[in-house]
């Protein structure tokens, strides 16, 4: 399912409204949480926004978890919040953070390898999900911004942007097309 279209149910709303620590992505990705928390004020709840932690602006790509260095910043803030709420388990939280960071090492290494072997290679995507990862890998994203945003928002891209994408594919101007199977439209299927 497309996570942009998610709507909370009563069970999830209750869990969110009673949470001690609430972690949100921000940047419009999980606006349903804001609606729930607006009606359930809690003086004890700590709210962490990944977008705020990494300093993302309103127009930035909301798929923050594809930027591995930023994911580590968010994870460290989560660990800190857990320690404040539950100091008795601080060693366990620190250990789990270390395990998580170590789990990212193969991804960081793969990204570095791609960068060393394919820096500047042209790639395209149907939606902005992998943007941060591709940029960190030194790849050149050629997708028209309007195309990716239209697909992400559930709209049809302009004919010009669609023609540009078709040209990239038919002329073999890109090395890779990354296709988000959670956002399938007739336009993306035709590509």
Oligomeric nature of the chains: single chain
Biggest sheet architecture: 3 strands, parallel
Q: Report the structural category.
A: mainly alpha
Rg over CA atoms: 19 Å
Helix content: 40-55%
- DSSP summary: helix tally: 9
* Helix and strand sequence: HEHEHHHEHEHHEH
Shape by Cα distribution: flat
Mean of the pLDDT scores? 92
Beta-strand percentage?
A: 5-15%
- Widest sheet: strand ordering: 4-3-5
State the separation between the terminal residues, measured CA to CA: 21 Å
For the secondary structure, the number of strands is: 5
Low-pLDDT segments:
none
Describe what this molecule looks like in 3D:
This protein is mostly helical. Helices cover 52% and strands 9% of the residues. The protein contains nine helices and five strands, in the order H-E-H-E-H-H-H-E-H-E-H-H-E-H. It has helices spanning 10-18, 31-38, 50-54, 68-85, 90-118, 131-136, 145-152, 159-170, 186-190; strands at residues 21-24, 46-49, 122-125, 140-141, 176-178. The strands form two sheets. A three-stranded parallel beta sheet has the order 4-3-5. Helix 2 links the parallel strand 1 and strand 2. Helix 4 runs antiparallel to helix 5. The model has no long low-confidence stretch (mean pLDDT 92).
């Amino acid at each position: 399912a497309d996570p942009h279209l998610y709507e909370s149910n009563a069970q999830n709303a209750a869990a969110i409204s009673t949470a001690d620590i609430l972690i949100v992505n921000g940047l419009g990705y999980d606006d349903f949480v804001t609606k729930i928390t607006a009606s359930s004020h809690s003086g004890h709840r700590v709210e962490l926004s990944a977008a705020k932690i990494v300093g993302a602006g309103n127009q930035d790509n909301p798929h923050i978890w594809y930027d591995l260095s930023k994911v580590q910043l968010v994870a460290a803030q989560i660990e800190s919040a857990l320690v404040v709420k539950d100091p008795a388990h601080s060693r366990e939280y620190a250990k789990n953070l270390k395990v998580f960071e170590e789990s990212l090492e193969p991804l960081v290494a793969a990204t570095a390898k791609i960068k060393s072997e394919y820096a500047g290679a042209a790639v395209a995507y149907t939606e902005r999900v992998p943007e941060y990862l591709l940029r960190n890998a030194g790849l050149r994203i050629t997708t028209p911004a309007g195309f990716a945003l239209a697909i992400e928002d559930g709209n049809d891209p302009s004919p010009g942007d669609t023609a540009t994408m078709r040209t990239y594919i038919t002329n073999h101007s890109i090395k890779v097309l990354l296709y988000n199977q959670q956002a399938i439209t007739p336009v993306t299927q035709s590509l």
